[in-house]
């Protein structure tokens, strides 16, 4: 048992970061493309964190009701989702308003 993962690092990496992280990334992109509030990805990742804990329990004999690992898994998913949200929002602003904004890195735009 580690601080960040319950069974093994491979399980955490494969299930939480890659599989659930891909779902979090797609959710962040989808919510940003519909001009939703940045709070919505956070709320949806709280639910995806529950599903991720269930899969750890069902597939790898993890603890279902572990608050510590739920918080760790959900924090990773929230981070991935918000990164995707911000990248998509920057791309939207620069593409939709090219006379107002120019890209200033992957996470920001600047006034022209």
Characterization of the model:
This protein is mainly α and 112 residues long. It has one domain (9-111). The protein has three helices and two strands, in the order H-H-H-E-E. The protein has helices at residues 9-33, 39-60, 67-96; strands at residues 101-103, 109-111. A two-stranded antiparallel sheet has the order 1-2. Helix 1 (9-33) packs parallel to helix 3 and helix 2 (39-60) crosses helix 3. It is elongated, with a radius of gyration of 16 Å.
Q: Mean pLDDT score, rounded?
A: 92
Strand order of the largest sheet: 1-2
* Main sheet summary: 2 strands, antiparallel
Helix content: 55-70%
Percentage beta strand: 5-15%
Q: Let me know the number of strands.
A: 2
Shape: elongated
What kind of oligomer do you see?
A: single chain
Count of separate DSSP helical elements: 3
Class from secondary-structure proportions = mainly alpha
How far is the N terminus from the C terminus? 51 Å
SSE order, one letter for each helix or strand: HHHEE
